[in-house]
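Form 7-S
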Amino acid sequence: MYFPVMGGVFRRQVAEVKAVDGVSFTLREGETLGLVGESGCGKSTTGKCLANLYQATGGRILFHSRRTGEVLVQAVDDGHGAGRVTPFPMRVPLTVDLARLDNDQMRPFRAEIQMIFQDPYASLNPRMTVGDIIREPLTIHQPHLPQAGRNDRVAWLMAKVGLTAEQAQRYPHEFSGGQRQRIGIARALATNPRLVIADEPVSALDVSIQAQVINLMQDLQAEFGLTYIFIAHDLAVVEHISDRIAVMYLGNIVEIARGDDLFANPRHPYTRALLSAIPRPDPARTRPPRQMLKGEVPTPLNKPSGCGFRTRCPIARPDCADRPPPLVEVEAGHAVACPFHSAQD
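Output:
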């Protein structure tokens, strides 16, 4: 995802911000993939591209939909028909490239991909009641559902997230931050989605409320079989909720692995520096010295050649400037974008 930078008298494009630059991963049904990294590394942009809120500049976003399409299948007789081929139509699940869809084409798939936004104070319309906010996705995506059915669905969703049906007539300003985020979760679940993209859903909440929202999301995932992409910069929260974790730096994924494997055996030097910064509230526990990174994060307007991390990397070599390192699987389920990662062991 590249954003143009306009300048000059005639407001022409003079540069581009490479916010997401060659990100590639597979998301399995029913799992939670944590997406972590420093502010500005492209986490939220990746999530918005997946939901097609941003039209990706290039690449593909393949999504296995619940919707079905008709294909023509050829059936060959097993000898009785002298090799006769008989075509017949069959309904099969659709695999669609979301990156190629415009807004109108994307609309049928939005019911299956929903987002929970970061700021619970800005993501809810202050002019609508809570009931109307949760009911709106049903009105758009399930217009055949009678009004009574929608109201029942709203009451049921509010109960699922720990609110009461009587609160449906209130406005967002009458709720706390944690309650507003619960409303956002209920709205995201209204259309029974397959994928929920949670963009730092607890970063604006108090620590005690964060735990309640995280536990609620896990309970709902177990009950409805949801698939999450959980975007955050708080590694402790990501470790708690994620099955796998992808680490981003300057628009690229530099490491991806199972959560327990990543925390026990980080391979990329950037991942090691991130994990060494996690505070451990145990005064009796000895901890290795913190790995400090030198310099500032380069601007995505002018990324370094080759590996984007090489200007701050403690094990960088001249070869790192030649080309971006590919994400290579070093062991089952653990991939690293650094050919020299073993040099730091």
